[in-house]
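Q: Given only this backbone (494 positions), what sequence would you predict?
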């Protein structure tokens, strides 16, 4: 029995693990690499396996770095089932259709831009007596004329969705010969799952129990339940390490900092721009803003929810109340609407989004995406980056090499849409809204494995940058377990 680490190894994104037994091949996650250009280039590498030979695929949750390459998997011959929780199926539909749409639009925009470069080169060639190829080489160094084709488009995503099968938590399912899987709540976003896989090479063999943590949420967070602790033990554990070596602020401090940012924006008649991922983070921030407003801790500023996907994701959240935690159940039973902010303005079209720039201030804008690597948040940043009355508030992880990471690190100038801009707006960060467990919370999740008769033979550290993995590795070793940091595309004999 073997396990191959085909993504999320010494990096946070690109989740993909291949379990191979004597009788089956099962893929766990098939995510897109995100972050800087070096990471994104990995999305165009050929698969390290033949998708047509897979027996089944399991999906932990709907974030793009876990599901984003599924249409490509299907395009390359995978015809089997894709197992996930029922909310994950619906949220993944939103994510993949949006991803296909954005890729097609980016490819179109790039072709139009490349055509303009070619026309400029042709004009220069005529004026300077140069051949066109030399004229293209004479263009500014940042002008790249190679074609960037989409990995897939909307139609490909729709075809992939036909292979999804939705399941409930805590219900074992047979997914391949000798392989059984159970989804339990990971507490990360709606429907997110830790996947417990029991696999045997031959009929009658004692199964090996492998626990894939997926992305682990934080205890006590709004809307959804806490991450499940695996009390029955395991033989192999894969655990995320995104925040290894780091601790989040206490919840009340994070809420206080958000309230303070809203008040500062109101006092200066400014704009509070919150870059936020559409699924999970946006719903939580709206939940907290609604609670703060009800408690009289913030003034009622107009909130623009400028993310069509976030709006549709919120509709999915409304459709699955059975996945809420006790507090959200209590609030909804009392007739409250904790997933909504009073009189929020939901923008649908691009024109409605652009019209926000002339709307009366003060205001709050929540827009995707959370790392400023694309989406509507970029044109808001373009408008606000040199506005001293604007405040950019980061509420989540910023990948290495992203624009968000540069701003968070204190950059005074940045490039936006090919232009160098001076940073005059305020920049603040709140780590307490992270949907990922911090180091103490990760160790709390791992600790039960040390007290059961079935102690893991190996704990694999995944979903983390090298520094985070190294920090968590030492702490896990102190607990008496055997941590290991797999390399990208390394295959391990279990």
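A: Predicted residues:
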């Amino acid at each position: 029995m073997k396990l191959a680490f085909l993504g999320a190894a010494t990096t946070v994104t690109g989740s993909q693990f291949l379990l191979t037994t004597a009788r089956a091949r099962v893929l766990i996650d098939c995510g897109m690499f995100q972050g800087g250009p070096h990471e994104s280039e990995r999305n165009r590498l050929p698969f390290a396996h033949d998708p047509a030979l897979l027996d089944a695929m399991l999906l932990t949750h709907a974030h793009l770095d876990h599901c984003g390459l599924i249409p490509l998997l299907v395009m390359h011959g995978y015809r089997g089932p894709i197992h996930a929780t029922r909310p994950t199926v619906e949220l993944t539909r939103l994510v993949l259709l949006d991803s296909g749409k954005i890729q097609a639009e980016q490819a179109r925009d790039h072709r139009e831009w490349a055509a303009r470069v070619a026309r400029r080169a042709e004009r220069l060639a005529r004026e300077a007596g140069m051949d066109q190829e030399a004229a293209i080489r004479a263009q500014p160094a940042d002008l790249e004329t190679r074609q960037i084709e989409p990995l897939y488009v909307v139609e490909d995503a729709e075809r992939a969705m036909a292979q999804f099968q939705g399941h409930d938590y805590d219900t074992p399912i047979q997914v391949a010969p000798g392989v059984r899987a159970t989804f339990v709540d990971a507490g990360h976003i709606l429907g997110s799952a830790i996947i417990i896989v029991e696999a045997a090479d031959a009929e009658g063999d004692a199964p090996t129990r492998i626990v894939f943590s997926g992305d682990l949420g934080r205890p006590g967070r709004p809307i959804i339940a806490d991450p499940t602790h695996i009390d029955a033990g395991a033989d192999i554990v894969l655990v995320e390490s995104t925040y290894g070596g780091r601790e989040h602020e206490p919840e009340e401090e994070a809420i206080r900092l958000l309230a303070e940012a809203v008040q500062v924006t109101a006092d200066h008649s400014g704009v509070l721009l919150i870059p936020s991922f559409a699924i999970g983070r946006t719903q939580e921030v709206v939940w907290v803003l609604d609670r703060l407003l009800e408690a009289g801790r913030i003034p009622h500023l107009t909130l623009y929810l400028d993310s069509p996907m976030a709006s549709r994701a919120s509709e999915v959240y409304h459709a699955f109340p059975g996945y809420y935690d006790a507090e959200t159940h209590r609030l909804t039973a009392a007739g409250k609407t904790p997933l909504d902010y009073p009189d929020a303005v939901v923008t649908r079209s691009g024109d409605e989004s652009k019209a926000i720039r002339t709307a009366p201030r003060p205001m709050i804008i929540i827009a995707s995406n959370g790392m400023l690597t694309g989406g509507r948040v970029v044109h808001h940043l373009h408008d606000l980056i040199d506005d001293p009355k604007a405040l950019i508030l980061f509420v989540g992880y910023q990948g290495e090499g992203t624009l968000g990471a540069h701003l968070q690190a204190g950059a005074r100038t940045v490039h936006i849409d090919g232009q160098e801009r001076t940073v005059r707006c305020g920049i603040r960060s709140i780590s307490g809204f992270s949907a990922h467990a911090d180091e103490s919370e990760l160790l709390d999740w791992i600790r039960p494995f040390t007290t059961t008769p079935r102690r893991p033979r190996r704990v694999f550290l995944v979903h983390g940058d090298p520094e985070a993995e190294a920090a968590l590795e030492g702490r896990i070793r102190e607990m008496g377990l055997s941590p290991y940091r797999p390399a990208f595309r390394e295959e391990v004999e279990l």
